Amino acid sequence: MLLMPSQIISRYEEICALSARMVAAARSNDWDQLMVLEHSVALLRDGLLREDDNSALNDAERESKARMIQRILEDDAEVRRHTEPWMDDLRRFLGGAAKKRQLARAYSV
Fold it and tell me: What is the pTM of this model?
């Protein structure tokens, strides 16, 4: 079922608001909240992928949608600036633990 233009714009507004909250969560290192928000965004995004009829939008609605998508992309880049260092630390930690297990197995035989 395709969404009406007002519903499409409303969904993008919801995603835009959630992405701004994701930035705040990332800035405060609130990873649990960030994951909850990301899940909410993913559900809305997936619904839009199935139900967004861009051809039903008028020019003003398409422009509004484009501005919101740009804002969402900027928010995503900001979230990544905060999460990538944390993810790198986590990878190093997990990689170190895996190497320790491999060494322990290799020399405990």
Answer: 0.77
